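re: that complex we talked abt at group meeting.

here r the seqs, copy pasted straight from the sheet so there may be weird spacing, ignore it
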Amino acid sequence: MKNKMTVVEGSYAVAHSVKVCKPNVISAYPITPQTHIVEDLSQFVADGEIDCEYMNVESEFSAISALIGASAVGARTYSSTTSQGLALMHEALFNASGMRLPIVMTVVNRALSAPINIWNDQQDSISQRDTGWIQLYAEDVQESADMTPQIFKLAEDKDVLLPAMSCMDGFILSHVYEPVILLEQDLTDEFLPQFEPEFILDPANPMSFGAFADPTTYTEFRYRQEEAMGVALKKIETLANEFNDIYGRYYGGLVDGYMLDDAEIVVMAMGSVIGTVKDTIDMLRKDGVSVGLLKVRSFRPFPVDAVRKALKNAKIIITLDKNISVGKNEGALCTEVKACLHNTKMRIPVIGFMLGHGGRDIPMGTIVNIVDKAKAAMKTDSFIESGFADLREDL
Amino acid sequence: MKTGTSLLAPGHRGCAGCCDALAGRFLLDALGKDCIVVSPTGCLEVFTTPYPESSWGVPWIHSLFENAAAVASGVEAALKALGRKNNTKVVSIGGDGATLDIGLQAISGAFERGHDLTYVCVDNEAYMNTGVQRSSATPLYANTTTSPSGRESRGNPLHKKNMPAIMAAHGSPYVATASVSYAPDLMKKIKRAAEIEGPTYVHIHAPCCTGWGFDSSKTIEVGRLAVETAMWPMYEMENGEVTKVRKIKDRKPVEEYLKVQKRFKHLFTKDGAREEVKKIQELADWNAKHFGLE
Amino acid sequence: MTLVIKTAVKPGSTIVNKTGAWRSFKPIFDNELCSKCGICAMYCPEGVVYKLESGYYEPDYDFCKGCGICANECPKKAIKMVLEEK
Ligand SMILES: Cc1ncc(C[n+]2csc(CCOP(=O)(O)OP(=O)(O)O)c2C)c(N)n1
Ligand code: SF4
Ligand code: SF4
Ligand code: SF4
Ligand SMILES: [Mg+2]
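got the structure back, here u go
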């Protein structure tokens, strides 16, 4: 019985995907809104449905550290965290990528303290942008579930060997009940090969990991990571297609367009807000507004060429960011998009809007307002500096 | 028989007379080839692995300063998950800073989870790798670069943290203290710790000529004096109980230990710090009495 | 493949680094006085004092840093530290 829909919670769908990917070691520490994923995984272990070592560690820092050790031994490794937990891992994130250990982690995106807030935005993973981890962002529950085997395969690829985050919006995706197709074990076995690293911690071949690099070699370590990101860029596309061949579902590779080809106004975004943007576009199109969407699936590696190509007909670009670089009054996607257009002949204004912080709802009205501003700017041929799109007037 | 006989190869960048190098070599001599070693950041880690070289003849990994125990627990879990645990010993060897200070939480977690691993602390009583700053293993009144003696200071004002007691309180089946100056005893304890199932702990006293201020030829001698004055009690604990101690024949006064080290020089100037020396003597007396060393 | 070898290095490979050059004093072993106890070998921080077939001991000067521990610990005073001639 293939392609059978079941109504489950987003977290369950992802936990189920992790299960069929058969990790050897899972290590995690509970934090809202990631908790349901690790609880579901714990239950799978308790019920003997998954054959792995599940480590109930005393912190996120030890969770990622334990996986560094486990991955170096040759294990397929998985964790999940969010917000404060991800921030606590920060130092070890660099370490995992520098040692080229393909640890996979679901980041259930949540705001960072202070003020403490348990709801969704993407400040947490965006703040780990430069740690050398691959970052993919899912649009809905099915994509989150489907991203899991893709990201294992990507991270563990012999020519990539980089740790990877599969990002899903907290609560909006993690706690929603939706009909989804739970990944089939047989298809996943077909799609995802064994993890077989060339060098592991093994007394039969005693290699050393984590040596001290001085100025004569350190740069090349960084360069090789960048090179591997370049390989990942190509593989993300291939894997999305391979996944489609086996499971029959496709969400775009690096980016995906919606009503894009003839659109003068292009909205760019990552994660669950895509759904609202699509609905808004459907509505605006009926009123004759020439608007389309460019969904960014891969934030690291950043798909510079794919973005340039997709934007070639755009007259104005809107970026939506659930994060802010305080002091720049701009979100990360905005900065990236501006940067990747700069060294080209393309002179397209980019307006950055920050919204949805700390779980603030993003209704279609907010998107409509944003598009209206872009239309006005286009008409008057003026520029709009980036800023918040959903500030309250009364606070 | 020339180079290549020890599992810790020479050519490393440790100071001449280095205590950490001795501890590392004794560790591997005791364990043999079938082990995986995890080192946190510190002298031993840095001087044995200048890329692309490594002194280690066994599989070895360094991740960060504060996470060695967590990494080791992941290594152990992965070996089990992959069906490769067999007799392979998982051992972490780190400095006093990595152990008593910044890495304590990870050690506590790993011991609480009951992994089958051995954690070895090489206690040279300060952060040597960064230039002899104070740690919570620095003894009372010792001069370090962040606890200097001066007009208003007699050096480190705080007592050395009792790490073996902390580890015993975690329910570890085996906790032992050792010294680089008693190699056969040290290796016996490491072997014992590695053979016992569960999380075990060995705390090695390691006099550092560079950090403590004595001639490189005296590393072993100074370590011996620490034991002979009862400044460093040597004992084994099984399931929380002291089961064995190394007896001292003619216990020496602590001055004999303190005087040979520059880090205590300020206690022996003309207007000497008799009170402070007396206090240190009291610590040694307490050790002798508490552990029944005599 | 080269990607991976960059992060894992070969065991025991510090032997390319001959630390004997650091030495300012050199241990000279006098077999006349030696009792073959092996203490010098045990406490050499470099692990480079080796037992010969004769049962006597000899340091590998390629690596000996001249710390003087062997001389200090030798119960028979059979090792002398002499100024290195460069
Ligand atoms: C998070 C972090 N803080 C500080 C440091 C700097 N640091 C590296 S090694 C070290 C001291 C090591 O001391 P210890 O563990 O006693 O080992 P030793 O070098 O004395 O053998 C310090 C402070 C670091 N590497 N990481
Ligand atoms: S400072 Fe001390 S521990 Fe560090 S290498 Fe030198 S002698 Fe060894
Ligand atoms: S320590 Fe002295 S007596 Fe013993 S083997 Fe070495 S040289 Fe000979
Ligand atoms: S002087 Fe030091 S390094 Fe040289 S052989 Fe003796 S103990 Fe070893
Ligand atoms: Mg230290």
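couple things i noticed - DSSP finds eleven helices and ten strands in chain B. Chain B touches chain A through 46 residues (CB under 8 Å).
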